[in-house]
Write a structure and sequence with these properties.
Layout lengths: L1 H12 L1 H5 L5 E10 L7 E9 L15 E2 L16 E10 L4 H6 L7 E7 L6 E4 L5 H8 L4 E10 L1 H18 L3 E3 L7 H11 L7 E3 L9 H7 L7 E3 L11 H10 L5 E3 L7 H16 L11 E3 L6 E16 L2 E16 L2 E11 L3 H14 L4 E5 L2 E8 L1
Helix pairs in contact: 5-6, 6-7, 7-8
Length: 389
């Protein structure tokens, strides 16, 4: 437990330093002009950008939110354009213009904001809000044209901080879990953590409860590629229906490792909680397009009386008993229980033993060395409970 306390202290202590690193994401904007000799730029795609007046149904919405240049004007994507807008981005760059595009800073995935057509007398600028006929014609037929593009770049220093933090905590805990709580993580930190989760292949448990996280878009995107995370705790934050929950839902469709997701004590509507509970059933049965996961749990209801801070599992703990080393599994829970206006913190240690000598050893340890705790040996399992205010 000393490692847990040290980790929490470290995160809180370094919070002012992280704030000096700047925002997690910075927007880079540039212009690039394509001349008549640049006949083909490449391929383009559109991605749905939902405004405040249009909220999709996360259960019935399609898992695909983008389409290539082969758009269909009669498709459902084009309907209700007054409510739905699109970001048009670079899907691929043609080999004939690759060197020119790279020298001007263009990359695959960059968003196209506007197109300016340069002519002798009929110059005009076209704002790109969809991959419609006019946009498609300008990108493929008109020359010269000047594109105003943008992309989001992650703060390298902030990414490095959290990367090293995860690595050090991983070595300190000697288990594949990581925790940062007590309001030390904000939206910028969540963006960086989500970006790192996309390539992380060691963490199985991530605890981000009791913070000031309002948007989980980046974490939801990471669930689409992460294949090791089993426990994700996002409870007791300020996440709303518009705070990236849709990306969590989309990530759950293909993710096959996550088994426990907590979103309790947030600002989610009853309708969203109902949808998430329905998705829990879809995951258990592998229906409605969701990857099956037996025993899937999505906790959304608020519980103001009991809150689990940590669940640390140590599968290999060495104990020196009777001149021999014994390997025993250990599980630690840290909970907070509210009794009227009093908060009681409870540490529950569950230790499984396999022989009589081990039981005698821990009888002596917990009953004589640590006599102020509740100690219950039951069915080859020790339950040790600490109370403190």
């Amino acid at each position: 437990m000393g490692a847990v306390a040290l980790c929490c202290f470290w995160h809180c202590f370094t919070t002012p330093f992280r704030r000096c690193l700047g925002p997690a994401v910075k927007e880079k904007r540039y212009t690039i002009t394509f001349l008549p000799e640049h006949e083909i730029i490449g391929e383009f795609q559109k991605q749905v950008r939902i405004n405040n007046n249009a909220t999709p149904n996360p259960i019935s919405s399609s898992s695909s939110s983008s389409s290539s240049t082969g758009f269909d004007k009669n498709s459902s994507d084009i309907e209700n354009q007054n409510e739905v807008e699109y970001d048009v981005s670079i899907k691929s760059i043609h080999s004939s213009t690759m060197d020119y595009a790279k020298s001007n800073g263009m990359k695959v995935g960059d968003m196209i904001e506007s197109i300016r057509v340069d002519g002798d007398s009929d110059s005009f600028e076209h704002e790109v809000t969809n991959l419609d006929d006019s946009t498609y014609t300008l990108l493929n037929d008109e020359r010269p044209i000047t594109l105003t593009c943008s992309r989001k770049e992650y703060n390298w220093l902030l990414l490095q901080y959290w990367w090293w933090d995860m690595l050090c905590c991983r070595l300190l805990f000697i288990c594949p879990c990581w925790c940062a709580s007590f309001s030390c993580v904000n939206g910028d930190d969540a963006l960086a953590i989500g970006e790192l989760l996309k390539t992380n292949n060691t963490l199985t448990e991530l605890y981000l409860y009791n913070n000031n996280i309002t948007n989980v878009q980046s974490i939801g995107e990471a669930l689409k590629t992460n294949n090791t995370l089993m426990w994700l705790s996002l409870g007791n934050n300020n996440i709303t229906d518009d705070g990236g929950i849709q990306s969590i839902i989309d990530g759950l469709k293909t993710n096959y490792t996550l088994k426990f997701l907590t979103l309790d004590n947030n600002q989610l509507s009853d309708n969203m909680k109902y949808r998430l509970n329905a998705i829990e059933q879809y995951k258990k049965g592998g229906s409605n397009g969701y990857q099956v996961k037996n025993g899937m749990v999505i906790k959304t209801h608020n519980n103001n009386n009991i809150f689990i801070y940590y669940q640390l599992q140590y599968p290999y703990i060495y104990f020196y008993i009777n001149s021999k080393y014994h390997i025993l599994p250990l599980t630690i829970y840290v909970c907070e229980v509210k009794c009227e206006d009093i908060y009681i913190h409870i540490i529950i240690i569950i230790l499984r033993y396999n022989n009589k000598s081990t039981r005698v050893y821990f009888n002596c340890l917990f009953l004589y060395i640590i006599p102020f705790v509740i100690y219950i040996p039951l069915n080859n399992v020790f339950y040790v409970i600490f109370f403190f205010f």
